[in-house]
Amino acid sequence: MCKEGVCFHAEGISKIYPGTKALDNVNFDLLTGKVNVLIGENGAGKSTLMKMIAGIEQPSEGKLYMGDEEVHFKDTTEARKHGIGIIHQELNLFPNLPVYQNIFMAREKKSGLKMDNKYHKEQSKRILEKLEHPIPVDTLVGDLRVGQQQMIEIARNLVEDDLKILIMDEPTSSLSEQEVQVLFKIMRELTAQGISIVYISHRLEEIMQIGDHVTILRDGKYVADADVKDIDIPWIVKQMTGEGKSYPKKERNINWDKQEKVLEVKHLTLPKSGGGYLLHDVDFDLKKGEILGIYGLMGAGRTEIFECIMGLRPEHTGEVYLNGEKMNIKSISEQIDKGFALVPEDRQREGLVQTMDIGRNCSLSAIKDYTKAGFVDFKKENEMVDSQIKDIHIKVADKRLPILSLSGGNQQKVVIGKGLLTHPKILLLDEPSRGIDIGAKTEVFDIINQYAEQGLSIIVISSELKEIISIADRVVVLSNGIKTGELMGNEIQEETLVLASYKGHHGH
Q1: How many C-beta neighbours within 10 Å does residue 312 have?
Q2: How many of the other CB atoms lie within 10 Å of CB of 133?
Q3: How far is residue 313's CA from residue 333's CA, in Å, rounded to a whole number?
Q4: Which residue has better confidence, 342 or 482?
C-alpha cells in the first residue's frame, strides 16, 4: 500500500492566494499507522496543507503522491475515494437534521430506491457507543452541546470502511478532558489498523501524549520534523515561534478592595428544561478595570452566565446590578445599549458574517455610529475600520478580502474588534483564544490587558488553565452550575483551580 512506512507524500507544495503565500515549497511525509502531528502558529499554513490532502483546495504548484502514484484531487469526494477523511475544527453539520442523517450524509446506503434508514440508525448507534457517546440517534444535531457535535463530526468519518488517512483539525478544542481521552483511545485503535492520522492541535501537552511524529511549519514553510519521543515542549515552542514564548502574567498594582463595583450578580439561577439547574444561586461581582476569569469544565454553566447577562435567557432568576442599579434584562440590543458587549465562543457561527469582507465585519455592530439618516457614511466607516485594524494588529493583506481568508487568530481579533467598536463598559469574552496559536494568543491577551488598563471591565471564560492563570486578576470557578471557588492573585494556580472545578462532581 505504501512505501517504507510513508503512505502519503507532498512534494514542493505551494499555495498562493491573492496577496499571500500560504504555503511555500513544503515537503511533507505522512507515516503509515502513526499520529502525524502538524504544528505551527496561525497562518503557518497547517490548515491549508490539510485542505490539499483532503481535496478542498488544490496546490498552486507541487505534487501529491499516495504510495508511488501521483494523485490529483479536484474535490473532497475524490479524496474520499482514495480513503481520505477530514474532521474540521469548524463543524460542518446540519443542525436541523437528526444525528444518524448527519453521520451518513453523502454516504447513504440504499435498499432499492429507498434510504436504508434502519441500517443508518444501527450503524450510527454502534459508532457512537464505540465513541462512548450513546446519543439517541434521532436527536436533532442543533440540540446537542458543542462537545457532542464534535463527536458526531468524528463519527461521520468512522463509517468509512476503507479509511486510510484521517485528518483531524483541532478535534479537541471543545471536548472535555474525559472526551479527549476517549478520542485518543479511538485514535490508537485506528493507527493499530494501519490508518494514518494527521492531527492539528494547539495543546502541546496533548501532542506529547498522543503524537508519534511532529512536523512544524512557520510562515508557510517547513521548519523541522521529529519523532515525539525525541523532543519536548520547549523544543516545539522554539521551532514554532523562533524563540521561547509563553504569556507572562501582568502585575497590576491595584487595590481591588477599594475599586468600585461595576457589576454585581446575586442568586443567579437558570432552570434546565428537564428539571434541575444549569446555574444555581451563583453570586459574583466585577470591578472597574478588572479582568475576571470564569473557569470550569464542560457543562459547568460558564456560557450560560453570559447568556443571562446579555438577555438571551429570559427565564433566569436572580438580580443583576449595574453600577449599583438593579437591571431589568430584556433583550440583547438593550444590553448592548447599556454598555455590554459579548464575543461568543463559536466565532464562525455567531461572531462573523461570513459573506461580508473583513472591514464590514469589523464595523457591523457599531453601524449606527456612522449612519446618517439611514445611510452609511463609508468614509467614516473606513477610518474607524483602519484604526481598529491597526489598534489590534489584524494581519491583513486587504480589508476587502473575505473574512474567512483570515487565519483563526485574526478572525478572533476581528470579532473582538467588533465588540469594542460599540465602546462597551463591560466586555464578555467566551473562550477568546479557542483554536488560536501561541503568537495570536499573546496578541489577543495584550489587547485584553490594554483595554483593562484603560478602565474597561472584562469577564473572560476559559477552559484552559494556563490561559486563565496568566490573564485573570480574579477567578470564579463553576462546577455543575454551582460556584465552587473564588481565587485572587497568588491563589490562582493550576491545582487550586482543578480542585475547585471538580467539587460538586462525584456525587457530592
Answers
A1: 16
A2: 19
A3: 13
A4: 482
Please tell me the predicted confidence (pLDDT) of residue 364. Answer: 46
Tens-place pLDDT, residues 289-313? 999 999 987 678 888 998 899 888 8
* Choice among 36-40, 251-255, 400-404 with the minimum mean pLDDT: 400-404
Taking Cα atoms as reference points, which of 83, 23, 17 lies closest to residue 54? 83
Helix 438-453 to helix 408-420 angle, to the nearest 10 degrees?
10
How confident is the model over 354-377, as a mean pLDDT?
A: 49
- Concatenating the DSSP letter of every residue in 38-104 gives EE--TTSSHHHHHHHHTTSS--SEEEEEETTEEE--SSHHHHHHTTEEEE-SS----TTSBHHHHHH
* Residue 416, all three cell numbers: 473582538
Q: What does the alpha-carbon distance between residue 409 and residue 396 come to, in Å, rounded to a whole number?
A: 12
Map residue 344 onto helix, strand or coil. Answer: coil
Single-letter amino acid code for the residue at 12: G
Instruction: Please state the φ and ψ torsions of residue 381, each to the nearest 5 degrees.
Output: -60, -45
Task: Calculate mean pLDDT across residues 128-138.
Answer: 87
pLDDT tens-digit profile of 385-398?
555 545 555 555 55
Place of cell 505522512: 30
Is the pLDDT at 373 greater than 60, yes or no? Answer: no
Contacts of 500 (CB under 8 A, 6+ apart): 477, 479, 484, 485, 487
Set out the domains of the chain in order of their start, with CATH numbers.
Answer: 6-241 (3.40.50.300), 259-339+425-508 (3.40.50.300), 348-423 (no CATH)
Q: Is the pLDDT of residue 228 over 70?
A: yes
Predicted confidence at residue 109, as pLDDT, reads 79
Mean pLDDT of 176-188: 85
Q: Is 425 buried (19+), middle (13-18) or exposed (0-12) by CB count in 10 A?
A: middle
Q: Is the pLDDT of residue 156 over 80?
A: yes
pTM of the model: 0.54
Q: What are 86's strand-pairing partners?
A: 167
CA distance 428 to 291: 10
User: What pLDDT, on the 0 to 100 scale, is given for residue 371?
Assistant: 47
The separation between CA 320 and the C-alpha centre of its own chain, rounded to angstroms, equals 29
Distance between CA 317 and CA 481 in Å, rounded? 14
Question: ∠ at Cα 273 (267, 279), nearest 5°?
Answer: 25
* Residues 362-366: contacts with CB under 8 Å, at least 24 apart: 362/388, 362/389, 362/399, 362/414, 362/417, 362/418, 362/421, 363/388, 363/418, 363/421, 364/418, 365/336, 365/341, 365/418, 365/419, 365/421, 365/422, 366/418, 366/421, 366/422, 366/423
User: What's the sign of the alpha-carbon dihedral 254, 258, 259, 265?
Assistant: positive
**Rg of the chain's alpha carbons, rounded to an integer?**
24
Mean pLDDT within 222-244? 81
Q: What is the helix (H) or strand (E) element at residue 381, kind and residue range?
A: helix 378-391
Identify each DSSP E strand in 241-376 by its residue range: 261-271, 277-287, 291-295, 317-322, 325-326, 340-343, 371-372, 375-376
